[in-house]
Amino acid sequence: MSFNELGLDHSLVRAVEHAGYHSPTEVQRRAIPAALAGRDLLVSSHTGSGKTAAFLLPCLHRLTQPAKVAGIGPRILVLTPTRELALQVQQGALTYGRQLRRMRTIALVGGTPYGQQLRDLRSPVDVAIATPGRLIDHLERGRIDFSRLEVLIFDEADRMLDMGFIDDIETIVRRCPSDRQTLLFSATLEGVVGDMARRMTREPERIEVAGSVQNRAQIDQKLLFADDMGHKAKLLKHILKDEGLQQAVVFTATKRAAEELSEELRNEGFAAAALHGDMHQSLRNRTLEKLRHGRTTILVATDVAARGIDVAGISHVINFDAPRQAEDYVHRIGRTGRAGRSGIAFTLAGHTERGLIRNIERYTNSSLAVETIPGLEPTAPPPRPRRSGPRPGGGGGYRGAPRRGGGGGAPRRDGFRPSNGGQRSRSSVE
Ligand code: AMP
Q1: 71 CA distance to ligand 1 middle (Å)
Q2: What is the pTM (predicted TM-score) of this model?
Q3: Distance CA 385, CA 368 (A)
């Protein structure tokens, strides 16, 4: 199928093709015609599925017609959980809308000075991309007008709720015209997100992209057990020296750990940089620019800061600290395997993190392949085999006998020895 068949304006089809995309992804094939028909949508899809174009293209199509209501406020409003994602969506709007005459976009995100945003809001705006907190500031000061708003989009709605934006979102939605179109994109449509979605949409069409967690990119997922932090650091450095590594994102649990680890890596000669929420926005932007241009090879980041990073050169994701939320695991490893490439994700787990690993395995419905690096094996007893389902007649406690030895698989060329007899999980995540 080609983009031509979706009913989009020719200028948009040309722009998409100019960006190098010739056939729509599944979420685009399903969401674009429904959105063009004016339907509200609830879409479950992950980053990496092509979701940004799935909501931007039908919205930009509206801009080929004049606004029905006079005013200077945005016709399209995209809400995103983080500044980085907002800037990325804005970049998408500029790419896909490059042939639209006089299209103006504005990013209303925290961490940037108000002055420029206020000046920008005095001229007509077509597409506003905002994080909820900053948008509320502008709304409360009467600096933004929603009278000509046609479409409201929630990008990564589940994440916005996780980050505690529910009250802000409710306030924003109350200020939007009731005859607007609403498009909600989220990794999950269950639970709180589902409740919110029902309240904020009208007879929505529900689109679930196959497998939701299991889709798209091929990401090879590996688990390495570590005795302590020093052991983790050694494992990390070993992985970072892998010849096949182009660029990597290393995740830490705290901002401080991100700073310290990136400094340690720089001292050892790696082109590493930290990215976390306490950094000034301009520094965060510069850091991401360097990553995009390949001047930074290793980004040491926290979950929120790394959300939405889309850099094709990221070949490895390394969870230096295991994520506390299983959903974060999926978002983290989705930083690799972008743009149709494959990727590798390592999780380094200490003894206290085994519970987190089990949660991840339950959430992704697949077990992580345990590996060891010759010379860097854990000294503590190796992990016990996991159960995949309930044991017949069994209570909850048994986890199997401890395994002995470091596993039988022969070392591979990359120096890793599968410790589960060579069985590796090559799952498709995100
Ligand atoms: P997203 O899910 O919006 O984060 O997009 C993931 C990646 O897929 C981005 O690098 C997009 O530029 C890319 N992309 C978007 N649409 C297509 C398409 N139709 N074919 C191939 N790649 C695409």
Answers
A1: 33
A2: 0.62
A3: 11
